[in-house]
Amino acid sequence: MTESFTDLDVRPILRAGGEPFAEIMKAVSSLAPGQGLRLFATFKPVPLFAVLAKKGFTHEETELEGGEWEVRFIPGAASPAEPATPAPAAGKPAVAEGDWPAPVQEMDNRELDPPEPMVRILAATEQMARGEVLTALLCREPAFLIPELESRGHAWKGAFEDDGTTYRIHIRIGG
Amino acid sequence: MMGATLSRWTMSYFTAAILSLLVAEGLMAAGYGFPAAGLLAPQTLLLVHLVALGWLSLLMCGALFQFVPVLIARPIHSDRLPLPALVLLIAGLVLLLCGFLHLSGLPVPGPNPLPWGGALLLAGFAVVIYNLARTLWGARPLALPARFVSVALACLAVTAVLGFLFTLVLSAASESIVLAGLAASGIPIHAAAGLAGWLTLTAMGVSYRLLAMFMLAPETLGWRTRIVFWAGTAALAVVIVLGIVLVLVEVSALPALLAGLVLGTIAAALYGADIVQLYRKRRRPRIELNSRMASFAIMSFGLCVLLLLGLVAASASAERFASVVFLAAFGWLGGLGLAKLYKIVAFLTWLECYGPILGKKPTPRVQDLVIEPRARRWFIAYFAAVWLGTLALLLPQAALYRASAAVMLLATLAIAAELLRIRRLSDVGGELRLPGVVARPHLLFAVVPPPRPAAGAKPPTERPPR
């Protein structure tokens, strides 16, 4: 069990309309071995769970007053590369044919208000390296996201899942 | 390219639409047109067309240029055609209104410009329909919301053609007996095709998607929505096709109108059930002002249908039906329009300004562009005044009606001022407002960056038919 936590409060950034993803990843990379991260956010940061699970963190969350959340990310408990929130229709092969590598990051944005899914995806793509792939689940076709991805030079593939309600998009950075 | 980009001219349509609404409300508050003038007096016709064309049709056209691409996730056929269409529509509207002034006895120089107004409007709408139809055609098979829009566009074509034919008769440009008969008995068909076909079907189709999107509600468009679509389409087909045939053989069009009313009532009732389900099943407990105010508009639609049925059952005089048209125009269509403008203007402005720098710099949220509590009281005043105005027309109480119109004017002015503040980013605080690369948006049009060809694989994306 982790005894020591670094605290990071991203609520001011979120309230100011900012995107704290970079700040969080910076804090994670500066953690000492065995150290955990205690994060305070204005919402339950579900997309982050999968990102940090890939880095080997499990999480415990507590709802605070006013719909805010405290989430404790604990190192070493989860096997890396296993997403904490597995995507539905997981039996479907991820896009890996040709030069599309397996995704380094997965997001489930289905419960987010528009245009939050687009905001999250674009913020994440700015942190990724050329050739890396991001996969995101959405509850509709991302009509406004697609031209923005194309204008930033990213390649993408997307389609509705068999359930007809979940839209899965794969984005490869830098085309 | 897939997806939807910003529609360049939508804001110009919205501006022209709101200006028309303000002028119309000013005229009503001043006592112009019905009930001071007759139901079919030129003054009333001027007012009705200023609202139906200037406010509601320009609003819907502007909205469709932006939202048809969102409905089908494909770009518009042409982002340039909306400008010439707008010029034709505004010129046509001005000439049409001058034509009604001419008929009302005002000394407008030259021959009556009514047919020219009708012709330019027909041309403008032809360009709109062509552009949207080409866009929709490329996305077949269409999902239900887009199918509503397709039928609505067909109704728009019928309305515009009938309207043009009427201008020929009213201005005495044509002496055809057939056309004179059509103009004498075809007005309810023209009104139904415009109000129920073009405007209401568009509002229904778009509202399914917008409400689901903004409330995080499951878009469960099942058997009930299909019946709404088919019953609504059948209602319009009966009223238009059978109605015109009956008028041409010089029989009363009343059976067609009544059959349309029965089918239309079924469609409206099931649409109401669909919308109640959308509100109930939403995953977002606290909804934004636009969704709360849209519920007042949809309630007005329900009231409209009930009022219409009541007046038909009571064999009420034609004057009483003015209250239904008023409630439909200002409560249902206009109310929904104002409520959704409050969100759409904020969203489009946000996307235009901050879309290109998302993830690269700190940006405000869409909701940072609006101050809902300030706008809320004006929306409530607006809807209260519309409902009071409807009652005043039913009673009838001319003074109460004018007072209601004055409150509507005041509330609309305040809402328009809020929209202006949104567009100018006036309520976005601090450094987030214009972070370096972001320019303040133009009031009348969007600056759309040219699309860059995709660098990688093309997507095999197809929306499965629901």
Description of the molecule:
The complex is a heterodimer of chains A (175) and B (466). By secondary structure, chain A is an alpha/beta fold. Chain A is built from five helices and eight strands, in the order βααβαβββαβαββ. Chain A has a four-stranded mixed β-sheet. The longest helix of chain A is centred in the last third of the chain and has 12 residues, at 116-127. The model of chain A is unreliable at 78-97 (pLDDT under 50). Chain B is mainly α and 466 residues long. Chain B has helices at 10-29, 42-72, 82-103, 114-137, 144-170, 177-185, 187-215, 223-248, 254-280, 289-313, 322-354, 372-394, 398-423. The longest helix of chain B has 33 residues, at 322-354. Chain B is globular. The model of chain B is unreliable at 453-466 (pLDDT under 50). The chains are: A alpha/beta (175), B mainly alpha (466). The interface between A and B is large, with 43 and 47 residues.
Can you tell me the residue ranges of chain A where pLDDT is under 50 for at least 5 consecutive residues? 78-97
Q: Describe the biggest sheet of chain A?
A: 4 strands, mixed
Radius of gyration of chain A: 16 Å
Poorly predicted parts of chain B: 453-466
Q: What shape does the CA trace of chain B take? A: globular
Query: Which range best describes the helical content of chain A: under 10%, 10-25%, 25-40%, 40-55%, 55-70% or over 70%?
Result: 10-25%
Continuous helix count of chain A? 5
**Which structural class do the helices and strands of chain B define?**
mainly alpha
Tally of strands of chain A: 8
Question: What string, H for helix and E for strand, traces the elements of chain B in order?
Answer: HHHHHHHHHHHHH
Termini separation of chain A: 42 Å
The strand count of chain B comes to: 0
Integer-rounded radius of gyration of chain B: 22 Å
Helical element count of chain B?
Answer: 13
- How would you state the average pLDDT of chain A, rounded? 80
Main sheet of chain B?
Answer: none
Order of adjacent strands in the largest pleated sheet of chain A: 1-2-4-3
